[in-house]
């Protein structure tokens, strides 16, 4: 838990960083490097790894000072890196030296990170994945195909989950690695989505080699390590605006204001209902932040993610209905490789609408999240599993 | 919890140790004094509640006047604390004038100008020795002076009221009625004794037997002036805002209870050789109920906090809570009946009592639709076009 003294300390450290490295003048990588060295990248990480060993809640105090001085929001420059790779590396890297050698260039955004989890045959049932890693002396040889990998075409490093023991039940045969995306045998191909863009990639792994030193956690313990990554992913997706009327609902309100001739009483009621739901969600996030303990995000992140995803879709459906015939036009289906700041959801409304269909699929489908809420929060019994206790190699796939 | 290391005043959504103890004390009281069997006994009795239980809530627990200042005999804690109590009374479905006395009459009295009448009326209500309710027309939780049906005339040193007020909650058995009436100097709020011959209280059969209503007929009923024409808007404004916030808290309590009993049932009820909670059709509905309860809790707490601290527009804060909690309690109670299957439709099971309370609560002080309309009027109807409009593709790349 944090104290007022810790908050003051964070603000002082941040004040020194912006005084010595004015973010409006120095290159972004230099500024973010200074933040890392001062322990402001993730204040709850250990000292030397971009943190100060303080409460997670104090990150907001640091970010407030850094951004008021014109600093960037590094999450958007390296989202998988900041949101998912960093917490996993700080907790599970084999040595602090190795963690540091990955984390500093991650923090400066010199090294972009991606995540190689999902496969064509393993979506919601992630633990059933088939990509294999076979030990060969001091290294591992990896073969398989990954999919839905954002930023793979720009990434220097990847978080990889692979099967090291097909004779074990599915969760027990997995191991977690850091893969060099420039290694021989790693091939990336754009995956075009319904918006026309290629925000994601397919990644093909053919005899790609990973030194054993780049394994995170024990052999066979990959599922537990992956949980660190996934819990952080869900809470990052579900975060949302802190000001009333901010976030996706702002799009609907702005459009409503701009198209008075398209208003009807029925649309008015729909928008009022959406606005109220957005407000309930905003207050619930604020309450969760206030009552959360300082540790890692728990299942509560799944509530936020579920609601935010469905609210996004409903908001853009409303926008399309308000647009009427205009909504049936589009900008361009020309393939572009965009992401981060230029992602679909920053494009035209029609593009944001199409993109929102993925919200209830990516980062845990809404169906899986309802299972998580039911089983982990409410304590309901799990569903019957046809693959329970079976060796992975004996489970039917397809 | 965020209660341990606070060296300053609590922030919104903090839960203090005192608040946890208060909640636990009310839960214990309800378990002992108002369990399921007691609720059924009280709801089928003449007055609809047990005056002895009500008086213990006031005298022994001291939880009826938490938002009443100490100089009036209250605890001087605040609406946030009072909301915790009302939430737990709602979870237990305790029969008594929670809405009339705690929700409306006490807030109206607290907001009135100081004076001997107020000093006389408030302490016995806080102690639970007497009960009161408010007979004033409202629309969507806002005082509606155009719907006044009672007239007031001077009579000696005081006043006399004549008229009929329909559907007054908690009027049966009330010792004091706070009545809005139209007089020679405008509309004012008067205090009228309940048990006199000039005041006829006709009990109505209600959908929710745990919350009674009655028609109040006054014929030259003696009355004392509580708030004059210059004051009544502020007094009833506060009463209806506080009533809305407390009603929202009650809805949270009832919804949480319905969720809890349904989760417990889904874990123990076996069909097809397995607990029904292991079926995703059941599990997912329960997950949605959880989200509804969590949203309701956040908006209800925010409404009480906003009224207590002045940190948000009370109009919006109460409407957000009313719209969210009315819908949540109804949906959760309806789903609780559904997930219990046949037993959930029986008289014997408690689900129908909560379902009926949910219906009634959603209609008191305006339902979800009316509050959404209020929200739309505040947020949407006068919004101006700003430069922040997201781009709209026009078919020309």
TrEMBL record, chain A:
InterPro entries, sorted: Acyl-CoA_Oxase/DH_mid-dom (IPR006091), Acyl-CoA_Oxase/DH_mid-dom_sf (IPR046373), AcylCo_DH-like_C (IPR036250), AcylCo_DH/oxidase_C (IPR009075), AcylCoA_DH/ox_N_sf (IPR037069), AcylCoA_DH/oxidase_NM_dom_sf (IPR009100), Mycobact_Acyl-CoA_DH (IPR052161)
GO molecular function: flavin adenine dinucleotide binding; oxidoreductase activity, acting on the CH-CH group of donors
Protein name per its UniProtKB record: Acyl-CoA dehydrogenase
Superkingdom of origin organism: Bacteria
Cofactor: FAD
UniProt cross-references to PANTHER family, sorted A to Z: ACYL-COA DEHYDROGENASE, ACYL-COA DEHYDROGENASE FADE34
Protein family (similarity comment): Belongs to the acyl-CoA dehydrogenase family.
Keywords assigned: FAD, Flavoprotein, Oxidoreductase
Gene Ontology, cellular component aspect: plasma membrane
Claim: Flavoprotein is one of the keywords in the record: yes
Domain Acyl-CoA dehydrogenase/oxidase C-terminal: from-to ranges: 220-378
Domain Acyl-CoA oxidase/dehydrogenase middle span(s) in chain numbering: 114-207
TrEMBL record, chain B:
Domain of life, per lineage: Bacteria
Swiss-Prot/TrEMBL keywords: FAD, Flavoprotein, Oxidoreductase
UniProt xrefs under InterPro entries: Acyl-CoA_Oxase/DH_mid-dom_sf, AcylCo_DH-like_C, AcylCo_DH/oxidase_C, AcylCoA_DH/ox_N, AcylCoA_DH/ox_N_sf, AcylCoA_DH/oxidase_NM_dom_sf
Cofactors demanded by this protein: FAD
Domain Acyl-CoA dehydrogenase/oxidase C-terminal, residue spans: 239-380
Residue intervals of the Acyl-CoA dehydrogenase/oxidase N-terminal domain: 17-128
GO MF annotations, alphabetized: acyl-CoA dehydrogenase activity; flavin adenine dinucleotide binding
SUPFAM superfamilies: Acyl-CoA dehydrogenase C-terminal domain-like, Acyl-CoA dehydrogenase NM domain-like
Pfam family, one: Acyl-CoA_dh_N
Family of this protein: Belongs to the acyl-CoA dehydrogenase family.
Record protein name field: Acyl-CoA dehydrogenase
Organism listed in the record: Pseudonocardia sulfidoxydans NBRC 16205
């Amino acid at each position: 838990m944090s104290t007022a003294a810790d908050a003051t300390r964070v603000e002082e450290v941040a004040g020194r960083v912006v005084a010595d490295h004015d973010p409006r003048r120095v290159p972004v990588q230099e500024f973010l490097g200074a933040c890392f060295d001062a322990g402001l990248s993730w204040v709850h990480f250990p000292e030397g790894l971009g943190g100060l060993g303080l409460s997670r809640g104090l990150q907001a105090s640091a970010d407030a000072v850094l951004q008021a001085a014109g600093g960037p929001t590094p999450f958007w420059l390296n989202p998988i890196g900041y949101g998912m790779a960093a917490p996993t590396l700080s907790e599970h890297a084999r040595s602090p030296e190795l963690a540091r050698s990955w984390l500093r260039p991650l923090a400066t955004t010199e090294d972009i990170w991606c995540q190689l989890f999902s496969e064509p045959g393993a979506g919601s049932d992630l633990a059933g994945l088939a990509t294999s890693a076979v030990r060969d002396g001091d290294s591992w040889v990896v073969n398989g195909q990954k999919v839905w990998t954002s930023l793979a075409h720009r990434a220097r490093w990847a978080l990889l989950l692979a099967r090291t023991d097909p004779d074990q039940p599915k969760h027990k045969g997995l191991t977690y690695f850091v893969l060099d995306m420039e290694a021989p045998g790693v091939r990336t191909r754009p995956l075009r989505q319904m918006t026309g863009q290629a925000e994601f990639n397919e990644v093909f792994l053919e005899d790609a080699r990973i030194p054993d030193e780049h394994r995170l956690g024990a052999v066979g313990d990959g599922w537990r390590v992956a949980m660190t990554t996934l819990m952080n992913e869900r809470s990052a997706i579900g975060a949302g605006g802190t000001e009333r009327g901010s976030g996706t609902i702002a799009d609907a309100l702005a459009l409503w204001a701009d198209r008075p001739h398209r208003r009807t009483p029925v649309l008015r009621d729909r928008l009022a209902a959406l606005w109220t739901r957005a407000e309930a969600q905003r207050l619930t996030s604020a309450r969760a932040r206030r009552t959360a303990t300082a540790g890692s995000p728990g299942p509560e992140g799944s509530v936020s993610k579920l609601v935010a995803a469905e609210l996004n879709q409903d908001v853009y459906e409303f926008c399309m209905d308000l647009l009427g015939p205009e909504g049936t036009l589009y900008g361009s289906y020309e393939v572009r490789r965009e992401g981060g700041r230029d992602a679909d959801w920053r494009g035209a409304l029609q593009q944001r609408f199409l993109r929102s269909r993925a919200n209830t699929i990516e980062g845990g489908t809404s169906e899986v999240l309802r299972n998580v809420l039911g089983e982990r929060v409410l304590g309901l019994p799990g569903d019957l599993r046809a693959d329970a206790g079976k060796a992975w190699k004996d489970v039917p796939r397809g | 919890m965020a209660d341990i290391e606070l060296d300053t005043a609590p922030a919104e959504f903090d839960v203090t140790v005192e608040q946890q103890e208060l909640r636990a004390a009310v839960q214990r009281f309800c378990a002992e004094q108002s369990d399921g069997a007691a609720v059924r006994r009280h709801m089928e009795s003449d007055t609809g509640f047990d005056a002895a239980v009500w008086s213990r809530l006031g005298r022994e627990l001291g939880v009826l006047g938490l938002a009443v200042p100490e100089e009036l005999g209250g605890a001087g804690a605040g609406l946030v604390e009072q909301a915790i109590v009302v939430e737990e009374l709602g979870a237990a479905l305790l029969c008594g004038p929670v809405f009339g006395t705690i929700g409306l009459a006490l807030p109206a009295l607290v907001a009135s100008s100081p004076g001997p009448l107020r000093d006389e009326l408030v302490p016995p209500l806080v102690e639970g020795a007497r009960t009161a309710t408010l007979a004033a027309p409202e629309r969507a939780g806002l005082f509606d002076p155009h719907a006044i049906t009672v007239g007031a005339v001077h009579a000696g040193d005081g006043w006399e009221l004549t008229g009929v007020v329909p559907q007054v909650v908690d009027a049966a058995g009330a010792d004091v009625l706070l009545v809005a009436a139209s007089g020679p100097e405008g509309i004012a709020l008067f205090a009228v004794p309940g048990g006199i011959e000039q005041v006829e209280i006709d009990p109505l059969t209600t959908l929710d037997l745990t919350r009674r209503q009655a028609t109040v007929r006054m014929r030259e009923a003696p009355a004392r002036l509580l708030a004059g024409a210059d004051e009544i808007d502020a007094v009833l404004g506060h009463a209806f805002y506080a009533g809305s916030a407390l009603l929202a808290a009650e809805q949270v309590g009832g919804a949480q209870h319905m969720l809890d009993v349904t989760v417990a049932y889904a874990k123990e009820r076996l069909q097809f050789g397995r607990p029904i909670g292991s079926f995703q059709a059941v599990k997912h509905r329960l997950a949605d109920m959880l989200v509804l309860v969590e949203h309701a809790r956040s908006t209800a707490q925010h409404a009480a906090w906003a009224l207590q601290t002045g940190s948000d527009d009370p109009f919006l804060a109460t409407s957000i809570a009313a719209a969210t909690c009315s819908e949540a309690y109804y949906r959760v109670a309806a789903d609780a009946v559904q997930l219990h299957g046949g037993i959930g439709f029986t008289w014997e099971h408690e689900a129908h009592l909560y379902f009926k309370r949910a219906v009634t609560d959603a209609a008191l002080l305006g339902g979800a639709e009316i509050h959404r309309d209020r929200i739309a009027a505040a947020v949407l109807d006068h919004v101006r076009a700003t430069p922040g409009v997201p781009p709209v593709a026009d078919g020309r790349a």
